Amino acid sequence: MSQSSHLNKSLDDEMHKVLEDLTSNVKQIQDDLLEEILTHNANTEYLKRFLHGRSGKELFKKNVPIVTYVDVEPYIERVANGEPSDIISAQPITKFAFRYVFCSGTSGGKMKLLPFNVKYLENVEFISNVRSFVISRHIDGADQGKAIRFAFIKMESTTPSGLPAAPASTIVLKTAYFRNLASKSYTSPNEIILCRDNKQSMYCHLLCGLVRREEVVSVSAAFASALVRAISFLEEYWKELCGNIRMGHVSEWIEDTSCRNCVSEILGGPNPELANLIEKECNQISWGGIICRLWPKTKFVECVITGQMTHYIPTLEFYSNKLPIVSMKYFSSETSIGINLNPLCKPQDVSYTFMPKMAYFEFLLVDEANEVKIVDLVDVNLGCYYEPLVTSYTGLYRYRLGDVLQVSGFYNNAPQFRFVRRNDVALSVDIETTTEEELLKAVANARMVLDSSDLMLTNFTWYADISTIPGHYVGYWELKAKNKNTILDLDKKLMAECCYVLEETFGSIYRAYRSKNGLIGALEIRVVLPGTFDSLMNFFISEGASLVQYKTPICMRSSNALAILEDKVFARFFSDKPPPFDF
Ligand code: AMP
After folding, report:
1. For 322-339, what is the mean pLDDT?
2. Ligand 1: which residues within 6 Å by Cβ?
3. Which of 113, 347, 411, 524 could form a disulfide with 96, with the two C-beta atoms 3.0–4.6 Å apart?
């Protein structure tokens, strides 16, 4: 065994031990963590209000309120405006992570500022190390090549007090740890990841990935949406990319000097053979399996594919010829949370094991009877639904994450959760509410109807149209022909069948209101032109969203964003028969 394999083996053994220890001693680790956070922060203005300088789990549970962002926003804003960090956190807040949230109204959304400090980064590094360990245990040779990683940054801004603010992903990508990781593991040099222009960055990621195709063992992005965007960008730009490879010269519009220089170096010089090879693959009628054809040594595709991302599964399976899609991490701008310890499971079966060192986690039971019950991480029950509350080192206390999770099992004593849905996403035109999970499930069922045709649903969103009487659900759909030479053939019967299947999947109140009482109108699918959802993404990015963390909204509320969709509608279909109802 070589010296480096010895080293790797002992690091592996070490990580195995750490993981076993963490997942076995969950209660102790969580209790110690809470005590440490409370003792450290007992004198913050926020906690003093509730604990009067004392700490202790019981007092904490009794006195500290459960909050959402709006409750803590005034405190966070005060720090952002220049008051000392210790209003909320003893550990200095050095930056803010901003998250773009989609809302109603004329703008697309608004920014949430979340406190950020060194503890957040330590946790991200830890999760990243666990991820590498788990992947290398399950996928042979995963560390013997590079990943094409579609990573992007957003320009940093500053708060009125001069503290930097950027999406959490941007802050993380700029750290020495990640720069080092990227230079060892990714096909793109850091200059490309850190380029301020996402379009130039995307182009250069693809160019480097294509030139280094023989080294590529995985294709990845944080969320599936960015990966699907990368493939559609490739569809648009492959001829130009091939031209660059053929001539050994980068397109003039790549103006960022650092990007230009490093990509030119990677290109090396004219390479007509490679250009021909790529051209041959991209010219094929179908783009099915394009990932494996362009990067033949790819072993897996990595991105978050759960929750809102589930609807990208068929598209990614199509592009990758069903390579494993590995969804490793569960994280947020508030804290890192958990990891998937079984990376090769089916995307539908992914569960995340909570890492008890990341934050103190409590769980609010999500219950039809509206019973308020909060339990600790070790006390969750198999099969039950919960919303996590986070108490962190960054100054958040009993903060509702807004996600709904279901307990799916345990690894040692650490609970594992299936991601179910966001709590705040639902559609409603009358007294019925249709949750994000139901909306996604309905689309998955309608997709099976499409399977009999040449059509692929690449993106969609929902809208509750109450301008009609009665109000009705509208799905904006972007469709694509699997065979790229085919003209989109929208068969009226097939599309009406899709509408029917969508309605049939919804809850009993929806179906009764639609069928028996006529209080909900026939569901409508509005088909939009190809590229519409890319325009939508560009709109949200121009408003402040980050490409790395972008998640296509499942329900549309912003009138400006809606206008983008409406402008591209070219066909409308309605359900032509009411769904069955049970009462
Ligand atoms: P952000 O702060 O922009 O990174 O968004 C965090 C949110 O993304 C979480 O609260 C979840 O709603 C979602 N998210 C993050 N990781 C996952 C995952 N593995 N599966 C499903 N949703 C996720």
Report:
1. 97
2. 99, 304, 306-307, 327, 329-333, 401, 403, 419, 422, 549
3. 113
Task: Give residue 8's pLDDT.
Answer: 75
Q: How many CA atoms lie within 13 A of 391 on its CB side?
A: 28
Measured in Å, residue 225 CA sits from the centre of ligand 1 at 12
Give per-residue pLDDT as tens, 50-94: 999 999 999 999 999 999 999 999 999 999 999 999 999 999 999
Helix (H, G, I), strand (E, B) or coil at 530: coil
DSSP 8-state assignment for residue 454: S
State the distance from the centre of ligand 1 to the C-alpha of 537, rounded, in angstroms.
17
Specify the residue with its C-alpha closest to ligand 1, atom 22.
307
Burial pattern 299-333, b for ≥16 Cβ within 10 A else e, equals: bbbbbbbbbbbbbbbbbbbbbbeebbbbbbbbbbb
What are the beta bridge partners of residue 105?
A: 558
pLDDT surpasses 60 at 1: no
Three-state SS at 335:
coil
Count of residues in the chain: 583
Q: pLDDT grade, residue 101 (50/70/90)? A: confident
| Pocket residue to mutate for ligand 1, from 116, 225, 325, 332, most atoms within 8 A of Cβ | 332
Q: Whose CA is nearest to atom 23 of ligand 1?
A: 330
Of ligand 1's listed atoms, the one at least distance from the Cα of 329 is: 19
Instruction: Give me ligand 1 centre to Cα 207, in Å.
Output: 29
Choosing from 154, 306, 331, 541 the residue with most ligand 1 atoms within 8 A of its CB, the one to mutate for a pocket test is: 331
**What atom in ligand 1 is closest to the CA of residue 401?**
10
The answer to whether the beta carbons of residues 412 and 389 sit under 8 Å apart is no
Q: Cβ atoms within 10 A of the Cβ of 30, count?
A: 22
Burial of 409 (0-12, 13-18, 19+ CB in 10 A): middle
| Token digits of residue 109 | 């959304």
> How far does the centroid of ligand 1 lie from the alpha carbon of residue 307, in Å?
8
**365-382 residue pLDDT tens:** 998 777 789 999 999 999
Q: Is 179 exposed, middle or buried (0-12, 13-18, 19+ CB in 10 A)?
A: middle
Q: Which of 433, 428, 526 shows the shortest CA–CA distance to 474?
A: 526
Distance CA 395, CA 175 (A): 21
Single out the residue of 481, 477, 473, 554 nearest to residue 514, CA to CA: 473
- Tell whether pTM > 0.85: yes
Q: How far is the CA of 29 from the centre of ligand 1 (A)?
A: 24
Amino acid at 24: S
**228-238 pLDDT, tens digit each:** 999 999 999 99
pLDDT surpassing 80 at residue 339:
yes
In percent, how much of the chain has pLDDT > 70?
A: 98
Per the structure block, which two tokens stand in for 497?
A: 């069948």
Work out the mean pLDDT of the chain and round it to a whole number.
94
Query: What amino acid is encoded at 379 in this protein?
Result: D
Does 260 score more than 90 pLDDT?
yes
Report the distance separating Cα 583 and Cα 414, nearest Å.
42
Nearest CA to ligand 1 atom 10: 332
Expressed in angstroms and rounded, the spacing between residue 287 Cα and the centre of ligand 1 is 29
HEC per residue, 66-105: CECHHHHHHHHHHHHCCCCHHHCCCCCCCEEEEEEEECCE
